[in-house]
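re: ur question from the group chat, yeah i did fold both. here u go
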Amino acid sequence: MNKAVLPLVSVYISTHNRLNKLQRAINSVLNQDYPYIEIIICDDGSTDGTQEYMRQLILDSPSVLYKRNDTPKGACSARNLGIFSAKGEFVTGLDDDDEFHPNRISMLLQHWKSEYAFICSNHTDQYASGKRNKYYKGASRIVKPDDLLLDNIASNQIFTKTEYLKSIGGFDTSVKRLQDWDTWLRLSKQHGQGFRLSNSLYIMHHDDLDTNRVSRNMTFSTALDALFQRNKKHYDKKSTYLLQSKIRLIQKKFTILDMIKNCWLKKNIKPVFQYLTQHINNIDI
């Protein structure tokens, strides 16, 4: 490929005290089959030797940049270090304990269209036991802004125009959980629909010993309600009800009225099985 006619892609990797995993993540970007990439390591106050390792790496690898919070400020703050220093036309992220497939960037660029707000892909869950499985089922699909109101179907990482992510202020540093979903929802509401490839181009590692992937200080149902409260202006009466009943389902407070109304609104019978499963699980044997 002729680098002179290719757009620069910025990849930000936020990290905190996970040097061994960070090295794998960095190598997966250095080994991309697309040649025009800048890698921005966003260190959230690591004290495990990450700073010393990065000092040497940036001398050996001109495409690697290093940004650092001297004291930890959280993953969203670290990601924003990369987003707002990115020089690429496009930007995407990578968690420090995950890795890219070698053709991730080239495939996303190949399928990019100017009318998209973002593009993303399927990912493979990799477990400590060796088990692997693709996360999303089905074909590639358009992701409309309203599709993100009830579920994060855009995965944990998206690929977008750098100016788009900057225009929404990057990640909201006040958000403690569901930061990616919150960001993609705001991005899509401002810039339009996205596209999700069925190809798995990202490996998400699930280490059974690692409990730091997301904050466990907030329950999922609480985080989901907080996401709704921040983005309430985007929800109409129907989507508000569906999200609130989803929260009740997670809390095991899903009523028979919820079951009936969800079946009617969603035009399927899955809520019946959700209701029955909830109540079977609540039976004290």
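okk and heres the other one u asked abt
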Amino acid sequence: MKAEIVHTNRFYYDTSVEQSLNSFRLKPKTDELQRLLSYRVDINPNSTTAQSVDIWGNNVETFFIAESHQYLEIKTTSVVSVQRSPIINHLDYTPESKKIFHSEVFRRQYLASSKQTPYTNLSFEQTEEIVQKVGDPLNPITFSRDLMAYLYEVFTYDTEASNVQTLASESADTLRGVCQDYAHVMIGVLRSQRIPARYVSGYLYVGEDSALIGDAASHAWVEVMIPGIGWVGLDPTNNVEALENHIIVCTGRDYGDVSPVEGVYRGGGHSLDVSVGVHLLEK
């Protein structure tokens, strides 16, 4: 699939801002299954960016505006080609995979994706309740798939129920939220069972007449490390494997590692308007 993504962030400041320093993570990744074909950034007031790569391998762009301004727009236009084939339903947890999964080398290599963060941490009682309802966690492949399906069934997608500061422990109690909340709860449960999992931020192409949820803004899902296979994407908001419709921008331990736009400025309050459009160019 080949798609164009136009992502616009508009900041409206209550008073004139004298200076602002901003960074954003909006440039899609390139790997063996996804290629970034073109990428453009437009900033108003006009500014140039300095590019870097963070510790998680995400593209970060930073810019500074010294002049007084009461409005800031960051617009990125990306063209991406994605080719992913279904795999999660065709995997077997072989004796060889089990040996790798329980090895000290595997544990150390994916330690950062196995430790809880404030965003993903759940209480023992919350974890036990979910695990008992999902089933046997000894097979990380089937458990991950069944956990995704369980969260899809019990959660209610509600844009008013949470914000970017909401923790998995809160979402697990209310069973309401958006893709970020689904992902944090799923990651929290997986890590409690020593299954390496990471947070993925990106875009979702829903197409026409689709039941998929998540194209109005940045989307979030989960990747699970399967021994001998690699990272496999699972989308609990939609109960689907993350395939060609899912365009990866960033990966990290949780939302805090992949926040799309961050900044500091001298001035009053502000409001933010975000719009995302994902358009199919070629199947």
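fwiw on the second one: Helices lie at 95-101, 104-109, 124-134, 140-154, 168-174, 179-192, 255-258. DSSP finds seven helices and 15 strands in the chain. idk if thats what u expected
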